[in-house]
Amino acid sequence: NMRAVPIEDIKEYASEDADITLQLKNVFAPMLTDTQTNKLFEEIEIPLIPVLADMEAEGIALDKNALKELSLALEKDILNVELEIQQLAGTPFNVSSPKQVGDILFEVLKIVEKPKKTKTGQFATGEDVLVKLVGKHDIIGKILDYRELVKLKNTYVDTLPLLVNPRTGRIHTSYNQVVAVTGRLSSDNPNLQNIPIRTERGREIRKAFVPRNENYTLLSADYSQIELRIIAELSNDTGMIEAFQSGQDIHKATAAKVYNVSLEEVTSDMRRNAKMVNFGIIYGMSAFGLSERLNIPRKEAAAIIENYFEKYPRIKIYMDENIECARVKGYVETIMGRRRYLRDINSSNHTVRGYAERNAINAPIQGSAADMIKIAMINIQKELKEKKLKSKMLLQVHDELVFDVLKEELEIIKPIIERQMRTAIPSLKIPMEVGMGSGINWLEAH
User: Fold this and answer.
1) Would you give per-residue pLDDT tens digits along the chain (446 residues)?
2) Does an H or E element contain 59, and which?
3) What is the CB neighbour count within 10 angstroms for residue 135?
4) Where in the chain do CATH 1.10.150.20 domains reside?
5) Fold that domain 64-160 belongs to in CATH
6) Which end of the chain is more exposed for a tag (fewer CB within 10 A), N or C?
7) CB count, 10 Å around CB of 65?
8) Could you give the CA distance from residue 28 to residue 22 in angstroms, rounded to a whole number?
């Protein structure tokens, strides 16, 4: 305890703190000027610190009973899936043992002729391996389900209640500004940005996050298709800009272009494929990757990508220019000048270089989205304080912000949040869209 330390010792300690900080400032300040990142540092990252500190201190209330119920339900689900797996295997075995799973799949059921092995000589049964075998036997999907349920129960449902602060009765996550190279925030103790929402059971975890009391409601606000809107902005592609400016369903509009049909003729399968291409392109997805995701021949996937670039030519140009820029300068930049250095962009190793090239395409998009939500957070917090509102910003999960809102302030706060999120970077041509919902828990609000 610092109070017990003699003042003379504290004086030395505090003086050294100040001295070292000044010495570091003298080293790092010129670097900000050299990399032209002063504005980013002074107008985004530094003003964001007190905003994050407030959010961390505020914390979020947790309904432990909801998690207890979910834990019991998951226990039943796990037992049922385990029984189904044993029946499909025709023999009892430990489903939690990767070795036994490998033996059952590849020696007993002989699902593939030449199964992949690990360095230790065991059969490889990681998710990356099993996902590719899903169509081969019903047992594969069941094993993946089993693992998902066990992870949900152990990592989140049974662990979250243990992380509630006994003094405040809330969960207080820690936000990191300098971990993700893209500029995104990350969080830990616990990591609330990683709660799985792909499955129904995963989404149910959000039910346990609740307002502070019955006078409050949770409000969730998130950017709609922010990364696609940003690639349209950065690439200046007329076709995509027009689709967004006219308020079209971008995936439907893309499907119509790629398949050469009218909007009315677009089927749900066409839209699904176009959606995968829209999001896949941002991450530099190849024809091989697309064919695997959509379960279609590689030739068909290549034709879809070719058509896509034909209809959105500026996107292809933007991607090529970004890779070329990274090759020459060694980095790419976001709208706000945040740099992502890519030391492997000129590597002679094809795989390593390919990874850097995909980052050259994606980093400015993901990083610009991160810059945007950070600016919105700073401006929202400022306005909430200026207007002396009791509502609080609690969480940031990539493109989403979660607030604890006093019910009587709900209609006051909604337009503030929407306006600040939409206009965070006012110079953009593409309109940003913000979806909002409120409810008695995070799931209902989202």
Assistant:
1) 788 888 988 998 999 999 999 999 999 999 999 999 999 999 999 999 999 999 999 999 999 999 999 999 999 999 999 999 999 999 999 999 999 999 999 999 999 888 888 888 899 999 989 988 888 899 999 999 999 999 999 999 999 999 999 999 999 999 999 889 999 999 999 998 888 888 888 899 999 999 999 999 999 999 999 999 999 999 999 999 999 999 999 999 999 999 999 999 999 999 999 999 999 988 888 899 888 888 889 999 999 999 999 999 999 999 999 999 999 999 999 999 999 999 999 999 999 999 999 999 999 999 999 999 999 999 999 999 999 999 999 999 989 999 999 999 999 999 999 999 999 999 999 999 999 999 999 999 98
2) none
3) 9
4) 228-365
5) Taq DNA Polymerase; Chain T, domain 4 (1.20.1060)
6) N
7) 10
8) 10
Count the Cβ atoms, other than its own, within 10 Å of residue 298: 14
| Other beta carbons within 10 Å of 376 | 25
| pTM, entire model | 0.91
Question: What is the topology classification, in CATH, of domain 228-365?
Answer: DNA polymerase; domain 1 (1.10.150)
Closest CA to 229 of 355, 363, 369: 369
DSSP state of 400: E
* Alpha-carbon gap, residue 52 to 212, rounded angstroms: 19
* Residues 367/340, Cβ–Cβ less than 8 Å: yes
Number of H helices, E strands in the chain: 18, 11
d(CA 203, CA 100): 30
Q: What is the residue whose two structure tokens read 């540092």?
A: 41
Phi-psi region of 93 (alpha: psi -120 to 50; beta: other; left: phi over 0): beta
Cα radius of gyration (the chain): 25
Element (H, E) at 435: strand 434-439
What type of residue sits at position 194?
A: N
Q: How many residues does the chain have?
A: 446
Please name which of 108, 206, 199 lies closest in space to residue 146, comparing C-alpha atoms: 199
Element housing 189 (H / E): none
Residues of each domain in the chain carrying CATH 1.20.1060.10: 64-160
In angstroms, what CA-CA distances link 30 with 26, 36, 80, 334, 355?
A: 7, 10, 62, 21, 31
